[in-house]
Task: inverse folding
C-alpha cells in the first residue's frame, strides 16, 4: 500500500467525527508531530497537551535519566510547532504526581533490591492526565502517536489492542494495560504505519527532532549523582553498605556501597582466582546487607507466573491458550498460557529463557503484525521442579507462600 492510500484510509471513528475537537498528546518527538499533521490533514480541530514530568530533586540534565523529559528548548520547539499549525497548546506540569507515583515507587524498589519498571507507570500516569484533560474540555477523542492497533467490537462496546505493523517499535503492550474508558476515546493515526514511513512523512512535512538521549525503558538507570538524593531522603539504616557474596554464600566477592547502586538482574563482572568472571546481581538480604552474585542459570526459566495481569476479553480463558511471550522485539518465545485466579497466569515455555523477576512482559497470540495482545503481567519465579535421581521417586515440596 502506498503512502497516499494509507493517508486516505487513516482511521477515523465515524463521519460525524470529522472536524470535531480532539485532544492530542504532544511529546515533542517525531511521532507526535506527524500525528498532529495527519489529523490536521483530516480537518480535525486539535487542542495539544504537553505533559512535563520532572524529578525536581535531580539537579543535572534530566534528559540523561528520563527519556520523556522536555527541557525548555524542546518546549519552545513544541510551542513553535503548534503556532505554525495553529493548534492551541496547554502545558501541564506534573512533577508532583510524577514524584508520588513514579519516583517514590522506583526508590522503594532500589532500596529493596527488586526490579523497577518506571516507564510503565509513567505511561499510565501521562495517559490518565491526557484523558482527564479530554473530559474537562468536554471532548470525545484523544490522539497519540503510539504504534499499535485498536479494534472496536460493536456487540460488546469493548476495545481490543493488537500489535502494529512495526514489530521493532510496537507499543501495544503499553496500551493494553489502560482502562477501557481511555481506549474507547483513543485515535491512533500511526497504527498502520512503520517508523520508517513516519520518518519519511516527517521529512515531507519538514519536521525535525534531535534524537533522544535515552529510549523508553532506559529511564532512571543508576547514576552516582543520585547518591546525595538518597542520602537526603532515606534513613541511614536503609542505605547500609554490605558484602557481595557468591550464590551459595560461601565466599565474599567484594563490597557494595548500598543496594540502591545496583539493579536486580544486571550483569556484574568480578575477579575470581585471577580471572574475570561474569555474574548477575541477585537477591538482596536486608537483614545482613548481602547481595548475591548469581550465575546465568539462576535467571533461566521455562515456567513462570505472571501477576497483576491485564487480560484481553477478546479471547476465551476457559482453557489454556498457545501464544508468544514478548521479552523484547528480538526475544519472542512460544509458550502456553494457563489462566489462574487473582489476575495471574502460569506461563510454560518450550525452553528455559533469561527472565528477570519483576519485569513486565506481554503475551501475544502470534508473532508479527496485527496480533492480539493476550495479556501483560509481572514476572514472578515459581519453584523449579526438583531433580529426581535415577531409580528414586521424589515428591516435590510445595512452597505455599508463593502458591498460585
Result:
Amino acid at each position: 500500500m502506498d503512502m497516499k492510500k494509507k493517508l486516505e484510509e487513516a482511521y477515523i471513528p465515524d463521519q460525524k467525527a470529522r472536524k470535531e475537537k480532539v485532544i492530542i498528546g504532544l511529546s515533542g518527538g517525531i511521532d507526535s508531530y506527524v500525528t498532529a499533521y495527519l489529523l490536521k490533514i483530516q480537518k480535525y480541530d486539535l487542542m495539544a497537551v504537553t505533559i512535563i514530568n520532572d524529578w525536581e530533586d535531580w539537579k543535572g540534565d534530566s534528559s540523561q535519566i528520563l527519556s520523556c523529559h522536555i527541557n525548555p528548548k524542546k518546549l519552545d520547539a513544541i510551542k513553535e510547532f503548534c503556532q505554525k499549525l495553529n493548534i492551541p497548546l496547554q502545558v501541564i506540569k506534573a512533577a508532583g504526581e510524577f514524584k508520588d507515583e513514579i519516583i517514590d515507587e522506583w526508590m522503594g524498589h532500589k532500596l529493596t533490591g527488586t526490579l523497577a519498571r518506571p516507564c510503565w507507570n509513567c505511561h499510565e500516569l501521562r495517559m490518565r492526565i491526557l484523558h482527564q484533560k479530554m473530559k474537562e474540555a468536554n471532548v470525545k477523542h484523544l490522539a497519540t502517536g503510539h504504534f499499535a492497533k485498536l479494534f472496536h467490537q460493536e456487540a460488546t462496546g469493548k476495545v481490543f489492542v493488537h500489535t502494529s505493523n512495526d514489530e521493532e517499535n510496537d507499543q501495544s503492550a503499553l496500551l493494553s494495560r489502560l482502562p477501557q474508558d481511555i481506549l474507547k476515546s483513543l485515535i491512533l493515526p500511526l497504527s498502520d504505519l512503520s517508523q520508517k514511513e513516519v520518518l519519511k512523512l516527517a521529512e515531507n512535512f519538514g519536521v525535525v527532532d534531535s534524537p533522544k538521549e535515552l529510549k523508553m525503558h532506559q529511564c532512571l538507570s543508576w547514576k552516582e549523582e543520585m547518591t546525595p538524593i538518597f542520602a537526603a531522603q532515606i534513613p541511614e539504616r536503609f542505605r547500609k553498605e554490605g558484602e557481595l557474596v557468591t550464590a551459595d554464600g560461601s565466599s565474599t566477592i567484594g563490597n557494595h556501597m548500598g543496594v540502591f547502586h545496583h539493579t536486580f538482574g544486571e550483569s556484574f563482572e568480578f575477579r575470581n582466582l585471577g580471572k574475570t568472571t561474569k555474574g548477575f546481581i541477585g537477591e538482596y538480604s536486608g537483614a545482613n546487607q548481602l547481595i548475591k552474585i548469581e550465575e546465568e542459570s539462576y535467571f533461566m526459566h521455562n515456567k513462570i507466573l505472571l501477576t497483576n495481569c491485564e487480560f484481553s476479553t477478546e479471547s476465551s480463558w476457559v482453557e489454556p491458550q498457545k501464544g508468544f511471550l514478548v521479552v523484547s522485539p528480538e526475544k519472542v518465545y512460544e509458550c502456553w498460557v494457563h489462566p489462574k485466579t487473582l489476575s495471574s497466569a502460569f506461563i510454560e515455555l518450550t525452553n528455559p529463557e533469561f527472565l528477570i523477576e519483576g519485569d513486565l512482559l506481554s503475551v501475544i497470540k502470534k508473532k508479527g503484525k496485527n496480533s492480539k495482545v493476550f495479556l501483560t503481567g509481572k514476572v514472578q519465579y515459581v519453584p523449579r521442579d526438583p531433580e529426581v535421581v535415577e531409580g528414586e521417586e521424589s515428591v516435590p515440596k510445595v512452597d505455599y507462600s508463593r502458591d498460585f
Summary: The chain has three domains: 18-145+189-205, 240-294, 299-383. The first helix runs from residue 3 to 8. The two ends are 47 Å apart (CA to CA). DSSP finds nine helices and 18 strands in the chain.
